[in-house]
Amino acid sequence: MQKDILGNALLDYFYGKYTEDILTETNISEEDTLPLPYLFRNYEQMPAIEQKALTLASGKVLDAGCGAGSHALYLQEQGLDVTAIDVSPGAIEVCTGRGVQKAKVADLLDVTERYDTILLLMNGTGIFQNLEKVPHFLKHLKNLLTPGGQILIDSSDLIYMFDIDEDGGVWVSTDKEYYGELTFKMSYKGDSSKEFEWLYLDFNLLKELAAESGLQAELVQEGDHYDYLARLTF
């Protein structure tokens, strides 16, 4: 069984046992730190892209991959009907403890209820895992939208991490179809997760794949470092 690295770390922080942060590592980067306090940030501490997404959220909302529930809590405080889901049992325990009224352990692909707004934040395209699975996820997300509904999703263009030749070609590892496909691993207090796939999509490719799935992608806002917020509708 996959260890709940994220959940265990969130639980430690929530119950006052914070002594260290999560360590992350990918196939294209060295070991890095994911500070636990950042996962408990309030609205004022969030990046502008996340703040924008929250201001655009309306109606009945699904916060997919909710983590510690910071986005769900804010929207709940604004009077919205929010359901927070995550595959991490520890994360959902923390969400409930922090006051999220509707929080449950669930995989996005198992959701059948429809929503006016679906939030996929903190590199929301990561949940797609790899390029091949994007159409399947987009089709499913489209089926979860009410008429006039929207998907608010963010990601980053990782092109800046690679060498580009004179013809515009990107030098990437030959075992990956696309430079935004990463192999990821998380560690916490001596425990490590199994390696898992995590996808960063540049906006132009997201727009192209969305169109193939009958969705229109709008670039809502760009961040300071190749990151962006997109709005998908049909």
TrEMBL record:
GO terms for biological process: methylation. InterPro entries: SAM-dependent_MTases_sf. Gene3D superfamilies: Vaccinia Virus protein VP39. Keywords: Methyltransferase, S-adenosyl-L-methionine, Transferase. GO terms for molecular function: methyltransferase activity. This is SAM-dependent methyltransferase. It comes from Planktosalinus lacus.
